[in-house]
Amino acid sequence: MINIPEVKLGVIAVSRNCFPKELSSRRCKALVSEIGKKGVSVFTADTIVENEIDALAALKEAADAGVNALVVYLGNFGPEGPETLIAQKFGGVTMYVAAAEETGSDLINGRGDAYCGLLNTSYNLKLRGVKAYIPENPVGTAEELAAEVAVFENIARVIVGLSQFKIFSFGPRPFDFVACNAPIKPLYDIGVEIQENSELDLYAAFNAHANDSRIDGIVAEMEQELGAGNKHSGVLRRLAQYEATLLDWAEENKGASKYFAFANKCWPAFQTQFGFVPCYVNGRLAARGIPVACETDIYGALTEYIITLATLTPPALLDINNTVPKDLFEEFKGVTKDYALSDLFMGFHCGNGSSCYLKDPKMGYQLIMKRALEPDSEPDITRGTLEGDIKAGDITVFRLQTSADCKLKSYIAQGEILDMPSKSFGTIGVIAIPEMARFYRHILVGGNYPHHAGIAFKPSGKVFYEVLKLLGVTDIGYNQPKGILYPHENPFK
Fold it and tell me: How far apart are CA 470 and CA 154, in angstroms?
């Protein structure tokens, strides 16, 4: 995948000067060794920080090594002033963890008191107004903390990426899907750039690529990817021309940003003017790390890019679309496990799926649009979807959104795609979320969320939740277990 920042992790160990420096140094070496066993590369500063001058020296080491995400390790109690100055001066995302005591046979000279020291660290971070990442279990053995650092690498990748990220949008949000409309001010609040463009800008750029030398090569890639699913080969050149257009637009307009995504209007005039639907290209680019959200869904593009960074896998943007009929549920009772019918729904979009997560993907046409635009003829301008049922597996449903009054909010729920046929069309899958009906009513409907949901194809709730906290999002909804009511859920059922 491209369009993704490299995380260069660094570790700085600290030591309170009335504790043995050797204790912190030895424990740090053990931590770094365990981090390496997780397959995570990390730079270690030589300087053990006991005072402010040490803090500056360690930060210079980290800067010279290109570190952009930092772990501050309390091998003992630690000096709360210098160690929090590290995060204040670093400027990037910083994690704090602390050493657990190692053995009951050495609790005099070998006792570090880092459990106590981390309390002072959190207090001083608040005094400095510095936001740092402290995991749910911040005090542990080298092996335990190495696992937390491995998670932090994914969190840091999101924060680093968003700090240099731009969204390109084309066209106003469709009137009939005004739910995708949202204020852009909160994007600037979290450091994301936005460049809003006209559909005419995109059309002019597309026409300028009519004879692009890359088209034949892109068509060949598409043919290889589609294989036997290449049911509408006549539209591939138009799709290839569009793909080249988007890639060039990004390179020519990134400006001061390094990473990017798109939020593009894709109907109703798109088909009649461009001569295809763009869904297949959207999925192809997402598989490479470049999300392209449909229906000018700017926060959908942001959501998809966060998923990409957090999981290093292609995201999907699906409608929370329709219920599962009871007869279909009964037909596949062995597949639905212990889920209730109300826990299931179908996630659908016209055909924007990446081929890597679809069963037997096929090039198709947008059936809904064909009914209106080409009702009595073979599909032409409505071709360009990639259709198929989504492969079974674990997923996380996630979205970062803003309210009409410019307050960021989000939801997260983990579940799975079930191995049962949708018996429908588009990019589609049967999704199971525990207590989905209540989550739908009290978080999605009750929270006024739009119909688009980001889909990560692995359990990722822990990373998303911590990223949201670092971004300052406090309104985070999730699916409550049975027996625990939502704030406005009626208890008199």
Answer: 13
Say whether pLDDT at 174 is over 90.
Answer: no
Q: Which pLDDT belongs to residue 185? A: 96
DSSP state, 460?
Answer: -
Closest CA to 401 of 454, 480, 469, 470: 454
Q: Do the Cβ atoms of 280 and 386 come closer than 8 Å?
A: yes
Interatomic CA distance for residues 97 and 12, integer angstroms = 11
Tokens representing 57 are 């020296």
Residue 205 near residue 249, CB atoms below 8 Å: yes
- Quick one: pLDDT at residue 124? 97
382: left (phi over 0), alpha (psi -120 to 50) or beta: alpha
**What's the CA gap between 308 and 320, in Å, rounded?**
20
Please report the pLDDT score of residue 228 as a whole number. Answer: 96
Mean pLDDT of all residues in 140-151 = 98
Both tokens of residue 92? 């990037």
- CB count within 10 Å of CB 464 equals 29
Using CA atoms, how far residue 192 sits from 159, 164, 187, 195, 197, in Å, is 11, 7, 5, 10, 16
* Six-digit token string for 13: 């160990």
Per DSSP, what are the bridge partners of residue 70?
Answer: 10, 94
For the chain, the helix, strand and coil percentages under 3-state DSSP, each to the nearest 5: 40, 20, 35
- 290-312: pLDDT as tens digits: 999 999 999 999 999 999 999 99
Inter-residue contact 402 to 409 (CB < 8 Å): yes
Q: What is the DSSP letter of 352?
A: B
Q: Over the range 426-435, which residues count as b (16 or more CB within 10 Å of their CB) and which as e? A: bbbbbbbbbb
Report DSSP letters for 132-171, one per residue: -B--SS-EE-HHHHHHHHHHHHHHHHHHHHHTTEEEEEES
Cα separation, 77 vs 101, whole angstroms: 11
Distance CA 349, CA 280 (A): 11
User: Against a cut of 0.85, is the pTM above it?
Assistant: yes
Structure token digits, residue 416: 């799975």
Mean predicted confidence (pLDDT) in 116-128: 97
Beta strands in 316-377 (DSSP E): 316-322, 344-349, 362-365
Please state, as a whole number, how many other Cβ atoms lie within 10 Å of the Cβ of residue 448.
Answer: 11
Q: Which amino acid is at 483?
A: G
